Every structure is written in structure tokens, then in C-alpha cells.
Amino acid sequence: MAEWFQDNGLLLGLALLDGLSSAGLIFLVAVGLNLVFGVLRIINVAHGSLYAIGAYSAASIGIFLSGRGLPDWASIPTLILSAALVGAILGPIIERLLLRRIYAQEEVVQLLVTFALFMILEDVQKLLWGVQPIHHDTAMRWLGTIDVPFGADFIPFTNYQLFVLPGIAIVTLVGLAWFLRRTLTGRVIVAVTTDREAATAMGIDAAKVFLLTFTFGAMLAALGGALSSPTAALVPGIGAQTIVLSFAVVATAGLGQIEGAALTSLMMGLGRSIAVYFEPELEVVVPYIIMVLVLLVRPQGLFGVIETRRV
Amino acid sequence: MTAPFSRRDALAAGFGAVLLPSTLSAQPAQKPAEFKIGVTTFLSGPASVFGVPSRKACEMLVDQINASGGIAGVPIRASFVDEAPGTDHLVGEFRRLVQSEGVHAMFQSISSGSCLACTPLSAELQKLTILWDCGTQRIFEENRWQYAFRTQGYGTPEVLAPLLYLLKHKPDFRTIAVINQDYAWGRDSWELWKTGMDAMKPGVRVVAEMFPRFGSTDFSTEITRLLALRPDVILSTSWGGELVTFIRQAAERRLHERSLMVLPVAEASMPTLGRSMPEGHIIGTRGDHWNNHPSPANPALFNGLVNSYRQRFNEWPIYPVHHMAQAMWALKAGVEKAVAAKGGGWPSDLEMANAFRGLSFPTPTSTITLREDGQGLEDQIVGLSSFNDRFPFAVPKDMIQFPGEQVSAPVGQKSTDWLKTLKPDFIASAGARIG
Amino acid sequence: MRKIEPFLALLLAAAMITAAVTAPWLRFVLTIALAKGIAVIGILLLLRAGQVSFGHALYIAFGAYTVAFLAPRYGDAVVLLLLAAVGAGLLGLVIGLFVTRYRQIFFGMLNLAMSMVFYSLLEKLYHYTKGSDGIRVEIMPIAGQTLDRVAYEWWIFGIAMGLAFVLGFLIRLYLSSPMGEALAGIKTRETRLEFMGVPARGVLLAAYVMSAMLGGIGGAIIAMTSRHVTPLLSYWTSSGELVFIAILGGAGGVLGPFLGAAAYELVRIYAAASFADAWQMILGAVLLLVILFAPGGLWGMAARVMKGRAQ
């Protein structure tokens, strides 16, 4: 064992750095989904579409502004602003026009409404952005790289992936935790997450909370997409690929638990990058193995609370 | 593997023709009012980066051919089917087009899985089927098909040509890593490459074999590992968005300074990458149809195709455009040959299919011959990525052209068996510099 | 409504046979629809208990690959159908022992995880499965009879139709048995079931194993019909499609899945034929319209028409 660490310790260190950046991105997408699920009790399949639209919009807006002389440093705030814009526009539209009609319906119907929306938005993306890969990487290029020592060698990492992605993820986590614990609106959201019936009985305007939460969740999905756009080429189908992993994160984390989502994302990000170094063929199934193991030990998810059994 | 068609097969086919009613071969066929083709291609999902340009090309070529009198005087009409929903949908659509729409020929498909699922239908429904893009060697090596023809190269030449180029360009490399998409082409192309490499240059050490999930949007972990391993050569047969993402992330971290990259399907991603493609790496195009081809056989036709595509769609043509064009020209040549053989009468489905065996048809760059097993022999051109002022993206320089026949497994041999027989002295004799 | 269900079933069967006789390509499409209908009855069973499996494509793919792998060795359709059903049932038992401990989102997402693991295995074990290239299934003898292609296709169509009737009838009996009634109990008040001495998990497990077998049978028929199997069969969107069909058809009776499957396949074909690059949008829109304006699905619509006539 000790010998193995001597041989592979350095590689493990690299895997840790890679895992952090990938965990950051997983977290940003999954935490919005988890938040929405906690409050609305809807597994939003269209969260993946919002991710994709966020990515495409950020790239388009970035390309448009760069062409009009936007300085390179401004491309990072642009990413965040375009995500907020996408969430603020699409979130209320989807919640008001669609989801509000089905809150009273069965879980499966709610799931399917978002599945239908996902199918529609897949084609909408194609109509708006075409099928050729789109990429806009000013943010990554402007930040440059940093050489990480590796034995006698060194490995260049992009500052964007090493610092910006995990950084924004941590800021989001801390900000969310503060918002949910310390502000009135946040506490109302927590109250609705914990016990919807009791919360509404106490006079909380559930409709407003739902709208707010969903819009917020949509912004987070779009933010995940926007932040992935500087490093990834955008093609049709990226939403479908991304959302599956987020599903696994939500179930593993526990309903509506943001700390749970953070810890799960970290485990999955690290697990995947370690797999790439030592057993690349396992990389794809690592998140599911983690999910199954966690649920075996904690059936309500990592941070989930056991719901009171209704009699 | 035996000879392509025994007499018994021919008799059985003829006999079946008499026994079976409708759609059938030996019945005198009427000259149709329009020549209908059904085209299967990706219109959604990640592979639509190839599918949509091919559809545009098909529509453009149909217009052009119809404007100049159609095929044997008959105008063409194309209908399109999306490959993305999966095999059961695609097989159903193939049947609908043949049995209900009455198409005269099928053009299929981009995905090898689709081709493997649909090619048997060409025999069952006895309908001329042109495989216009898929690359799997399994189609013509594991079976013989009377109605199916592939009008472009396939996996074996498309992998062997870049391998030969590498062996000529950097004969002293000792280590290699592979990063391919995790699906049939990613796996097959690596097996073909490794078999050929072990035969012609034994002893190369494979330091990493990575097959990230199809559709991945982040390769930073894989790139870190490659940076740490410092292999002499990195092979990737990835394409589309994934190749763009990989190259962008790799170039930013200067992976291209540590290892020579070999990218056999690079061409289609070059316009998207623009100036971010590093120079001096080996790039291929699944054929010989580079936009900067130094000496196309028919320059007027070549420029005509490139320019009219650019004018109409405001983008550069990529290889699926050329593959679609090859299928269309093959169709025209084959059908007109069958009509001529009939002295102007309209050929039956079988007569039409038979006209394609051994058919040679001109492409703007060269000539493609359909072998007796139905496989087309398309030349391959490989070169080093470079920039010039004619194109806003990377194009090859120091190009080497490999004749299709030289880099394809002979009729009746399996690719992997044939690749094992290659000797190191093949490297020097293969291919010739052009340009 | 329940009384006229058998009559309606005969009517639907007659319509399908007429369509299959007039157009050979419809025979193919309708065989697929019947196969998916059989699998969707399994979804319906679980829906009765209020649980949505978002991974039942696993059992379809398992049944299909069972046929593809074993056809060269035990090449008889009847034997293979039995093997696919038993195999899928055993797999369902193993997975069911684990997943029936969970409810709602955990149940749905664990099923999703299982199907995605299976999907990855089909891709990873390339040397056995040929990955995304898939495996070809040749025409096989049926009950010892070697058939030509057209006769074979008719037989498979007939078998699918026969199985649809037999299985539909059996599930109908099951649902009105105490075991079936207990399923509905899981949905409303699970704790009460246990107070009455009914082991809820056992009830759900029995239904789960049955649904897995139905999936395996459906998958086997799909493999025998399309005669080429690929990993896409077990991708998460295929699971979504099954739930889609269940809701489109309506969760009321066992006829719903077949109505839904036939409608789904036909809508998809006509959408693909008229708008090849926007078929997803059309399917999604149809689903939304059904959920929003025709709750109860096609079966519910039929029920309302019948009622209107009776009055």
C-alpha cells in the first residue's frame, strides 16, 4: 500500500486537481436541480436543456460582444450575466405557463411535462444555433495557464479550470447556504422544502416561492452551461448528456440538500478523475457506483432527512 | 470467404424473382416520372454536425442534377430520415420508404450501427442501397450483398493512410497513447491502427488507452494524464464537437508541444477551430477531398462544388458533403449505365444494382471504382496541419496521396488479417507526395 | 368502461391486422408498437403503486440482447422468448431486492442508474457486444418451423398480438386480485398496508419482477422484429419513451399501453416523414397537449366518448 502511494502519489495529486474542477461544474448543474426538486418536488428533465441554452447563449453573447470590442477580462462577468439573463427569462416563462398547471398532478405527469419540454427545447436549440460546434474560449485564454510541478517535470493547467470553476462553485455553495439560512426568503424556501403542507398552512405564499425557486434553479443550470462554454465545443445533445449525471447527484445528495450536492459532486468528480488515471474504463460508471453505495448505507441520501411516515 | 457470387446464388436470385410478386426484379419496369431516393442521415444529436451538411449537399445536388436533365432524363426527389431515434425507428422508416413510398434507391447512413442494421434490408427488399458515409469494415468483410455498394473508402484505408504517414514522417517514435470516443468507430479504428502498427513497426509501447464517454464535454483529466506521460504520439480518431473540445483544451495546455498528434478525422473540425489548431500535426479527411487539393482531376468540377456549396449555405464544405456528392454521382453513373445497357429501356431493380458492380465513376478529385464486393476504392490524402492565406483554418501541407487500392484490404480478406501481413518495407513504397 | 375493454381490445386488434395486411411496413411498425405496449404494461403496474421507473429500458435491452446472444445457439423464437422473460425476471429480482427498498425519486433514479450502467457495459464490453455497431439477429425458426421472411414477420406479429392479449388479460386479473389492490395501497398510504399485515415491499417486489419480465418479453420481440440490437435500447431517453407511452395511452386500463404505443409510433413516423429535423418537437408538443388538455390519456378520451354515447 505504502509502496503504491510512493509510485502513484504524484499522479493522485494531479487527479485531485482535475477532480476539483470537474466537481465544480457537476455541482453547479446539480445544485439547481436539487433546489428545484426540494421545493417543487419535480424532477426537471428540462434542466439539461436550460444548461445547454445557457451554454449556447453565453457563447453567442460572448462572440457578439467580442466582435464589438469587449475587453477580454470582461468575458468572465459576461458568462455570469448571460446565465442570469437566460434563467430570468426562461425560468418564469416555464414555471408560469407550464409547471403551475400541473402542481396538483401526479409525480409521473410532472416528470413527463418536463420530459416533453426537454424534447421541444432540443429542437429549438438546433433551430437557433444550428448543428456545427460553437465555441468561444476568450475567458479560458485570457486567464492563461499555470505550471504545476510534477516530479522533475511540470504540467500546465488552465487557470480557468483550476481556479475559476472550483472558485465559483465554492462561492455559489457559500452564498446559497447563507441565503437559505440567514435571509427570510431563504428560510421560507427551506420551510417549504421540509414540510410543504405545514408551511402553506402557516400562510407562506407557495406560488411565489415556487416561481422564485424555479427561476433561481434555471439560473444555476444556465450558469453551469455558461461556465462550461469556454472549454467545451457546443453541439446538439450536450443537455441530454449532462442531465443524467445530475440526476444521480440529486438522488445521492438527499432531497434539496445543497451541502449534500456539494459533497456528492466532489466524490463523483474525484472518483471519475482517479478512474481516468488508474482504470479509465470505469470512469463512466463511477458516479453510479457511488450512488448505489451511498444509498445502501443511507437510504435517504447523504444529507437527507427521513421523512415522517404518513399514516 | 469465397468468390463473390456463385452460380447457385445467381440462380436462387433469379428463381426468387419469378416466385415473389410485387417490387420484383424480372418484371418489366416502367420509366418512372421521378427517381425517388430515401436518405438516412443524422438530423439531431451530436452527429448532426455531419448529417445536416450532407442533407444540404444532397438538396443542392438534386437541384443541380434536375436542372441539367435529371438521371437518364428522370428528375430526382430525395426524402430524408433521421438516424438519431435508434434502430427500430430507422429500420421501420427504411421499409416505409421502400414499400410505401416506392423509392428507387436508398442512401444510408452515417452510423456504422445504422448501416449494419439496414444493409440486410437491401437484400430482403431487393432495393439498390448506396452506403454513402459509414465506415465499418464489417459490412463487406462479413457478408456479401447483391444490392449494396459503398461509394467511398472505409475504416481500414482511413486509419492505415495516417499510420503510414506517421511512419514516414516520424519513423523513430517509441511510445503512443490513444484517446478515442467510446463507441464502435473509436474501438474499431484503434484495433485497426494497432494491428497495422504492430506489423510494420513492432515494439511501440502503448502508454495509455482512453475511451472517454461518447459526447464528453471535458477532457482535462485525460489531457493532464497525457501531459504527464509525454507519449511521442497521440492518436485520436474523434470527430465533431469532441475533437474541437479536445484540441482546444489540449492546445491551451501546450500538449501539442510535447506530443505529435495524429487526427484521421480532423478535416471536418478545422473550420470550427480556425486558427486555434496547432500546426505540424497529422490530419486526415476520410478521403482525398481537401479544400486545398493541389491537383484535382477535374478542377472546374471541384471548384464548382466547393463554390456553389459556399455560396448557397455560407459555410465551407466538409467531408460529408463530398461523400454525399460521390454517392449522387455514382447513382447517376450507375443508373445511366443500366439504362444504356437496356438500350434506353428502364432497368429492373436487379439490373440497376448489377450495373454498379465494377462501376468506375469520376469525382472532382479522382476516380472511384466499386469493387466486385461492392466496396469503393477512394484515395486518401494525409498531411501536416498548416495555415495559408487562402483559408481561415488549417489545411494540410506536405501531402501524401495513398491510392485506394493500396491501403484497402483485398476482396475476401478481413482487414485485421490483412493488416497483420504488412511488412516494414511497405512503408517506403506506399503513397506518393503530391502538391 | 371496464366491461367494454375486451370489446375495444378486439376492435383495436382488428384495426391493427387490417393495417398490417394493407401495408407491409405498417406490420413492422405495429409489431414494434405491440412489443413496446407489452413492456409499458410493466410501467403501468409500478405506476399503480405510485412508483415511476425511469430505467425500464434496461429490461427491454436485456431481453433484446438475450435474443441476439443466444439466437445462434438456441435459435428458436419460442425458446428465446421464454429465456428472455425468465432472464429479465431474474435480473429484475436481483435489482428489485435493492430498489424496492426505495420510493419516489430514489426508486426512479436508481432504476435510471441501473439502466445507464447496463448501457455503459454494452459499450465497454466491445469485444462481446460490438458496442454501438450492435448485433444482427437472423431470421430464426419458430417452434421448430423454418420460415421465409414474410411468413416469419407475420408469425412474430401474431405472437406479439397473442402475447398482448394473454399478458393483458393476466395483468388485468392480477390488478383486481388482493395483491394488485395492495399495489394501490402503496401509493396512497403504505404504512396502513403494513398495519394490516401486508408486506409492502414484497407486494412491490412481485410487481417489479413482473414488470421486468414484461420488459424482457417486449425487448425480445423488438429484437426479433428489427433484427438488429444496439445499446441505444437502454439509454435513458428510451426509458423516458416508455413512461411517455404509458401516460399518452392513459393509466386506466391495460389497453392504454397499446393505444399509447401505436399512437406514439405513428405520430413519430408521420412527424419524421413531414418534418425530419423537428420530430422531437412535435412528439414533445403532442405529449404536452395530452397532459394539459386530455388528462387520462387516449384511454381517458375513449372513456369520455363512451360515456357521452351511453348518456
From TrEMBL, chain A:
**Where are its TM segments located?**
20-43, 50-67, 73-90, 160-180, 209-227, 233-253, 284-306
Domain of life of the source: Bacteria
**Entry-linked CDD domains:** TM_PBP1_LivH_like
Q: How does it sit in the membrane?
A: Multi-pass membrane protein
Keywords noted in UniProt: Amino-acid transport, Cell membrane, Membrane, Transmembrane, Transmembrane helix, Transport
Q: Where in or outside the cell is it found? A: Cell membrane
Keyword Acyltransferase: yes or no? no
InterPro entries in the record, alphabetically?
ABC_transp_permease, BCAA_transport_permease
**PANTHER family named in the record:** ABC TRANSPORTER ATP-BINDING PROTEIN, BRANCHED-CHAIN AMINO ACID TRANSPORT SYSTEM PERMEASE PROTEIN LIVH
**Similarity comment:** Belongs to the binding-protein-dependent transport system permease family. LivHM subfamily.
**Name of this protein:** Branched-chain amino acid ABC transporter permease
Please give the organism: Neoroseomonas terrae
The organism's taxonomy opens as: Bacteria, Pseudomonadati, Pseudomonadota, Alphaproteobacteria, Acetobacterales
From TrEMBL, chain B:
The record ties this protein, via Gene3D superfamilies, to: 3.40.50.2300
Q: Give the signal peptide, or none.
A: none
Q: Which UniProt keywords apply?
A: Amino-acid transport, Signal, Transport
- The Leucine-binding protein domain extends over 35-376
Does the keyword field hold Ribonucleoprotein?
Answer: no
Q: Which residues form a coiled coil?
A: none
Q: Respond yes or no to whether keyword Signal is given for this record.
A: yes
Q: What is this protein called?
A: ABC transporter substrate-binding protein
Which organism's genome codes for this protein?
Neoroseomonas terrae
Higher taxonomy: Bacteria, Pseudomonadati, Pseudomonadota, Alphaproteobacteria, Acetobacterales
Automatic annotation (TrEMBL), chain C:
Membrane topology, from the record: Multi-pass membrane protein
Q: Which InterPro entries match?
A: ABC_transp_permease, LivM-like
Ranges annotated as spanning the membrane: 54-71, 77-98, 105-122, 154-175, 196-222, 242-267, 279-302
Alphabetized, the UniProt keywords read: Cell membrane, Membrane, Transmembrane, Transmembrane helix
- The main location class comes to membrane
Cellular localisation: Cell membrane
Q: Which Pfam families match?
A: BPD_transp_2
Protein name per Swiss-Prot or TrEMBL? Branched-chain amino acid ABC transporter permease
The record lists the organism as: Neoroseomonas terrae
